[in-house]
Every structure is written in structure tokens, then in C-alpha cells.
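Colleagues,

Please find the record for the two-part complex below.
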Amino acid sequence: MSTRTLPLLFINLGGEMLYILDQRLRAQNIPADKAKKGRWQLIYTRELMKQELFKPQELYSKKALRTVFDRLAHASIMRLNQASMDKLYDLMTMAFKYQVLLCPRPKDILLVSFNHMDAIRDFVKDTPGILSQVDETNKQLIEIYTPLSGGEFQLIRQTLLIFFQDMHIRVSIFLKDKVQNSNGRFVLPTSGPVPYGTHIPGLIRIFSCSGEELRRMQFRDGGNYSATLREGSFEMYGDRVIKLGTNMYSVSRPVETHMSGTSKNSSQHTKVNTTPNPLAKEELNLLARLMGGLEVQKSTNTDSGFRVNLFATDEEEEEALISRPDELSYEVISIQATKDKQTNAALAKIMGEFGETSEPAPSSSSKGDDLLAMMDGL
Amino acid sequence: MSKMYHKEKSIQLKSSASALYNNLSVLRIAPRCITYFTVVHANVVNMVSASWDGLNYSHRQLQSKEGNVATSSSLIMQAAWCVLPSRDLLVLTSQKGIQMYESDGSIMVYWHALDTPETPTAKAVFARGIAAVREKYICVGVSSGSVLVFDVPSKGSNITLSEVLEEHKEAITDMASECSGNLECIADLVSADDSGLLCVWKSGEDFQLLNKIPGFDTSCSSVKLWKGTVIAGYGTGQIRLYEGVTGILLAEVNAHARWIYSLDIAPFTGLIEHMYNECVTDTQICGARFCDGDGYAFAVTGYDLSEIIRYTQA
């Protein structure tokens, strides 16, 4: 559907990821010097602000996107076990799903994105190099998205909602705040300010042929709405007004998910991507380009690395891995680039051939083939 | 005396409804005492046939098959029945093109491919907006703003593209044909787009543009045409009624606090007054249809919901 969806998905999910990891590191009391507090945020931010994303393209499968975030999470010396990575991704996706659903207008998704960008900028404000990358990306967001019409934003929203279809993972912080029900569905309030540009429901006006108002009638719409707030700012800096997309975590508000309570009937999970290959060729090309330059940190030196646990204890983490329901497993393609020298060399060769151009090389489909063949052999 | 509606037993679906405009189509088959419902889920159309006694339900799922490709991941934008005097066809519009099936979804009788570019463009390409017009036309909208007019014979698969109407500049959102049954109405078809522009047409060998009603900077997502009156639902939550041929604004309703996704009228009621409202808790509604011409019953679908919720008059 919309070919402008991927950047918003990536940046908003990435923003949530930074919020969650930041909270977990504080909760785990990782010593400041060991965490090298700013560093992992810098690395992730650098990887999030990839220009590749802004090319018009179809939204990628859940699998491909999860693989990208897996790689991203391992780009710094931070280590996450499978269970923690699964949970991290659950939280990221449910948070953004919530934000997309609750946005009063489709265009407000852009304000949510700006909230994430504002927070990301704050994380990296002391590092000019990365900060300028963030500013660049922000400028691109403004350039590409502010001219879009409401209808085009609605299409983006509809595309995102297809991506999030049928995801009902329960998140503790949402349950506590009563924004999510115990069946995993989000609460949709029928009160509060109406979206910018909308009138409070209830008025019917009848006009004559000459355009003058003949009469008015009121009806009760069953909601309890109030006048709209002012519109948020779509500039580089400004008050976004909308709170969705700001950091809802703090040390005292932990991140937890419940694995049960998702859809009762698992046969309802109709997969969107029915192609026989695990990933379409274009997706592999994107993956290759996004991973190019991502230094995979060796985890051999335990002193320099540190493990982030998304659960309260190691035992809980292990238990979560074992008990994760099948229908919630993320099928991630694991590309062990560091293990096999020959594989690594092949991958490096493919990376090298991509260069800096945003247009894919004419034989890019064969690069996808190479990568696919390589993965089949793993 | 307005009558209240009450909630009936829901109809279960094989998969949940996607957040798409007008995501519910209803076909009432009186001779067989059944009603068909279709709801789109990503690249699949869920079809349910429900017997009027409420005892029998049967399900079918259609995937958007394009041309020769057996399976496809092209997303479906809309599915709707087109009722013509001689036949009913189920029309599917997707990112790749338009498919027409026999009304029970058993056989595909026609396939029209859209010009999809090699590499994706900034503007998405898809077909959306479906209407059966008079005796022999099926009109389908496209993301470019074009309206494709197909000539449909009384039987068989010799369906042809007879005309392309180019008035809209933005993506077509919805289309509707005159539903009152009144053959004297001049206007046969109304098309709506993302800018809120409404075009009113008279059908024929060459379709004739009768009027263009400009939008007010907001998308019109759902539209109906009844006795020459255009009823349009907008992204601002407003419903507006226009006299189609003249463009005169007849009424304006601040109906909803969110973007309207679907709008329907019961053609035999002749009412335009507020009767009833209901809130489907924690559900974003994406399809709403009367199940019969008298407005006795209506049904709604919601995003992520795997059921069709029904209401009938007490």
C-alpha cells in the first residue's frame, strides 16, 4: 500500500527501543562507566538514521524488520538473550501500535514520530557527529511528510495497521494505566478533545437552496467530547502537543509483558506474506544495505560487554524463552557473519559492492539471490 | 416514531478485519433466504453466508490471485458486490488490479491489471471504489484519480474496459450509484477522492460529467447517492448532503469525533434524521452496512475484530 511507511515504522520502533533499553539499564544498575552511558545510544541512533529507508518502497514483512532490529540491538557491546530480544520487540511493537491507533488524526502519526526524534536528539545531543545525522533525518521527515494530505496519511496509517494486525500482547504498563484491556485490546476513549479540524459531534444544520441556514438540531452522540487542542508543531523544534511517542517508562515503571491472553483462536493468524521464500529479494537487499557497516561486536571479552535482561531475573528470562507460545515466535533469519570466514567474506563482498548510491545497482536482484543462497546454506 | 436497535448475535469471521474504508459488503439473496457478507483481511477476502434463520453459516476465503500467479501477497483495498439486473458479481480491488468473480466467489471471470511501476513510486498504486451502475456498468476507481468503466454482458466473461474517466487528481476513495431504484434520476454515479472532491456522473456509452463538488481540504472516505442526493462522509467526522446535479449543500452533520470510514443508507426508508447511536467499545469501525433496504438490520466490522456485529430494530 503506502510506499512511505517504512521510515515512520523504523524510527518510531527505534525510538521505543531506545526508551526501553535506557530504562532497563537504569533498572539493572549497570555501572555508568561499564554502560558507557552515551555510547550504545549513539551507535543505535547512527544505525537508525539510515538514508536507505526514505526510498519509496513497500513495507517489509514482520520477519525482515525483526531481523534488522535484532542486528541493530547487537551493534553495540550490549548483549540480549533470545527471550529478552523477543520481549523487547513485543514492547516496541505494541507501543507503536498503541500510538498509531490512538492518534486522533492520521497526520498526528508524524507528530508522534517527531516526539521520538526529539527524544533521540536529546540522547545524542553531546555528540555533534551523530546529532547532525539526526537533524538531517529530521529535515527529511519534514520535507517528505509535511506536504502529504490527510488521505495519504490515512493510507500510511492503514498500512501500519495491517502490519500490526492481530497483535494483542499485553503490556504491564498499559494494563496498569488502563489503556489496554486484559484481552490485549486497547481502550478507545469516547471522551476528550476532538482531533484538530473536527467539530464536536451533535449538530445538524439544514440549508436552503440559497445557502442560508434554515434550522439546526442537536442530537446526543453518546460520547463526551470537548473542543480540540491547538495543533502540534511540524517544525524541527516545537511543542508537539500530543503526548503519544514521548517516553512513558521510568525506573519505577518497569517493562513487562504477559505472553497469555492473546487471540483465543490461533487459526486467525493469516500470514500476510505468502511467498515461498523466507524473505523477498528486495527485503534481502535492504537488509544487506542496512547491515553494511554494522560492526558486529564480538562478545568474547566479558569485561567490555554487558548483558541486558528485559526480565527481573535470569530465571524468569529462561522461563520466558521456554514458555513462549508458538504463534508469537518471531522467525528471525540468523546471519552468523562473524563465525564463518568464508561466509563473512562473501557478505563483505556483497556489502562492498553496494556503495553510497541510493538507487539499487542494476543487478541488485542477483545480490539478493546471493544472500538468499548464502542463508539457505546456514 | 423512531425505533431502537439492539445488538444481535455476531457472525464469526475466519480472520480479523483490516482497517480499510468501507470494509464490509452485504448481498441479500432473497430466493435462498441467505445473506452474504465480505470482509477484507490484508490479502484475503473473508466471505460468510448466513441463513436468515440464523442456523447455517458457511465460510469461504478468497486470495487476490493476479493473472497467472497462483498465490500473491498483493493487499486488497476493497471487496464489494455489484448487483446488475442479470447477474451479481463480486469485485476485488488490490494493489495490482481488479478482479471480478461470480457472486459466490467460486470463479474469477475477469482480471484487469493496473500499470504498476517497476520500482515503487512515492505515490502508491492501487484500485479502490467500486460501484455497479444501471444495467451494465461496473465502475472502479484508481489511486491516480481515474475511474475505470467496465462494460459487463448479461453473462459470460466478455467484460471490457469501455471508458476511463479523468476528472479526479487525487486517489479515489469510494464510489456509489443511485440506490433509490428511481429510474428518473439524472445522476447515476458519484465518485469521491482524497481531496474531498465529488464528481457526479450520468452513465451511458460515454459517461457525462454532471457536476463537480469541491472538497474542503479533507478526504471524503465514503459516499452514497440517493434520489439525486449525495451523502458524503469526511475525514473530519462530518457528513454532508448535497444535491448532486446542482451541488447545493442541503445539510451538514457534525456526526463523529473521528475520521468516518464507512457510511450506508437504507434506500426504502426516505429518512434523514438522527435515530439512533451506539458505541462499539474499544473498536475502530471500518465497515458499516444496512442488511436490507428497509433498514431493519445493520452490521459493522472493526479493525482487529474477527466478527461481524449486527443490530436489528426491536
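The first strand of chain A starts at residue 78 and ends at 79.

Comments are welcome before we finalize the supplementary table.
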